[in-house]
Design a protein that fits this description.
With 190 residues, the protein is an alpha+beta fold. It is 20% helix and 36% strand. The chain contains 3 helices and 13 strands, in the order E-H-E-E-E-E-H-E-E-E-E-E-H-E-E-E. It has helices at residues 11-21, 81-97, 142-151; strands at residues 4-8, 25-26, 30-33, 36-40, 75-80, 102-107, 111-118, 121-128, 130-133, 136-141, 156-161, 168-172, 180-182. The strands form 3 sheets. It has a 5-stranded antiparallel beta sheet. The protein has a 4-stranded mixed beta sheet with strand order 1-4-3-2, covered by helices on one side. Strands 8-7-6-10 form a 4-stranded antiparallel beta sheet. Strand 7 and strand 8 form a beta hairpin. Helix 2 (81-97) runs antiparallel to helix 3. The protein starts with a strand and ends in an 8-residue tail after the last strand.
Amino acid sequence: MSYQLVVSEKPSVGAAYAKVLGATNRQDGYLEGNGYLVSWCVGHLVELAEAAAYGEQYKKWSYDSLPILPEEWQTRVTVERAELGSAIDRASLIAREGKSNLVCFKLDSETLEVSSNSETGDMEEKMQVITEGKDLTIAFNVRYITDVLKALSDDQIVMRFNSNVSPCVVCPVEGDSYLYLVLPVRVFNA
């Protein structure tokens, strides 16, 4: 008889899989039945590699050797931090009511539209910005972008984008005193 092997990260998950699959015969370190062998590990099955595994130059962190930041950006937006933060705060009231907790940015040459919607209503607010590059629509978990804005005190910030599925970089208008990466949420109508 042939079996299908199912390996889980911990015993409790293995037991849950076994119950669903009908593997009820307990053996030494696994459960068997209904054509399945269900086993488990103790601890993580996969972990992140140390930075040095990608190259010796990454063993010690350096801003100059960040491999994840592109040299060129498709869109660069300069915005008033407080105005953006206030718009996102208002959008978050709607976003929290929905299941997605999303805030959407729609950028064109002169405006940034911040929007959010849920079953209880919609919110849309436009503000003047300085945009260089392509128009873009991108969505974020409202908490991620809010956390970054609350950590900053600059009057103006720069947001850099390459696409609606690649990270947004938030940095100062001049210099490199900070750099925040905000991961977007993929939405299919953006």
